[in-house]
């Protein structure tokens, strides 16, 4: 076949015209009219271009390849509650108390602030003993003077005076004991915040009214329950458990006595298992101190207060200084 130079139809070697090839893929179809659409077939869009098949070139679903959003507790969605991401140090879940860490932290902070806690506790014990002895001696001596005449009237006055003396001594003891508890707990809470403490913090009387009301309510309740066998003892245990953070809330949040009791009950019912261990460990610290005699109490009281302050910060999701 001779080469076609354009403009003249191609011919073979014998001089005959060669028919043009049929329309192929990607070539215009010439004057051939398009086929009529079949009934029910989709109508092609203008220009003859069909859309790409489903799924081809579509964007990825929302969130594909991105980090899952954080949950309200600060953990990625889908991660089991209370577990830490791989490679990060362990930390208890919100509201839970690590007993071992709390115990170690309390002893460590007592060692760093032993002068404040030890001297302050010693001065409180001396002050409470002196004041209660003076009050008892004053009222007791007054009653004995009235009853010296030996008459029935004098004996009656003496008996009434003894009852009044006992009530006054009890009230003074409750007041001083409550003030001591609030003072040592307030000092421990300052330690959890990383603030420096001094001996003056052990004699903070800024919440004296509500502290005394709370102490008086607890004393009256426990006094009445003493006369109820078995169930009274169970009720006393329940009071100790549910009002465990009462002084903490008065000092830390400036709550009234009733509001502090209500809030303490709510805190102690959020995580019963952890809270029971906290109360038992705090009581065990004090008991061991009592067994170790006077010096042991001077150490056990502040350590128990520091441990309870640690637990309080944990159950309220507060910050604890290392």
TrEMBL record:
Alphabetized InterPro entries for the sequence: DUF975
Keyword Membrane: yes
Transmembrane segments: 114-139, 159-189, 201-221, 227-251, 272-300
Residue segments, region Disordered: 1-93
Domain of life: Bacteria
Keyword presence, Transmembrane helix: yes
UniProt KW keywords: Membrane, Transmembrane, Transmembrane helix
Compositional bias ranges of the Low complexity kind: 64-93
Residue spans of biased composition, Pro residues class: 34-63
Protein's name according to its UniProt entry: Membrane protein
Organism of this sequence: Cellulomonas iranensis
């Amino acid at each position: 076949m001779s080469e076609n130079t354009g403009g003249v139809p191609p011919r073979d070697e014998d001089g005959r015209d060669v028919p043009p090839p049929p329309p192929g893929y990607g070539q215009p179809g010439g004057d051939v009219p398009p086929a009529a659409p079949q009934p029910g077939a989709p109508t092609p869009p203008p220009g003859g271009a069909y859309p790409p098949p489903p799924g081809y070139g579509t964007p990825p679903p929302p969130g594909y390849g991105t980090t899952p959003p954080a949950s309200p507790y600060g953990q990625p969605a889908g991660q089991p509650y209370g577990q830490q991401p791989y490679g990060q140090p362990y930390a208890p879940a919100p509201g839970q108390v690590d007993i071992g860490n709390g115990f170690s932290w309390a002893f460590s902070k007592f060692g760093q602030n032993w002068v404040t806690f030890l001297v302050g506790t010693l001065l409180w014990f001396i002050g409470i003993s002196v004041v209660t002895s003076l009050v008892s001696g004053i009222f007791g001596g007054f009653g004995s003077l009235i009853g010296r005449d030996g008459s029935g009237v004098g004996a009656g006055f003496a008996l009434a005076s003894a009852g009044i003396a006992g009530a006054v001594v009890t009230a003074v003891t409750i007041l001083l004991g409550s003030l001591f508890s609030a003072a040592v707990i307030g000092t421990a809470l300052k330690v959890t915040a990383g603030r420096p403490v001094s001996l003056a913090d052990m004699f903070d009387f800024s919440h004296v009214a509500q502290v005394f009301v709370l102490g008086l309510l607890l004393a009256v309740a426990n006094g009445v329950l003493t006369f109820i066998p078995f169930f009274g003892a169970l009720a006393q245990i329940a009071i100790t458990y549910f009002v465990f953070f009462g002084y903490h809330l008065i000092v830390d949040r400036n709550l009234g006595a009733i509001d502090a009791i209500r809030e303490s009950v709510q805190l102690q019912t959020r995580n019963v298992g952890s809270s029971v261990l906290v109360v038992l460990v705090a009581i065990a610290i004090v008991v061991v101190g009592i067994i170790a005699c006077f010096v042991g109490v001077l150490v056990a009281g502040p350590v128990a207060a520091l441990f309870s302050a640690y637990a309080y910060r944990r159950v309220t999701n507060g910050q604890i200084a290392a």
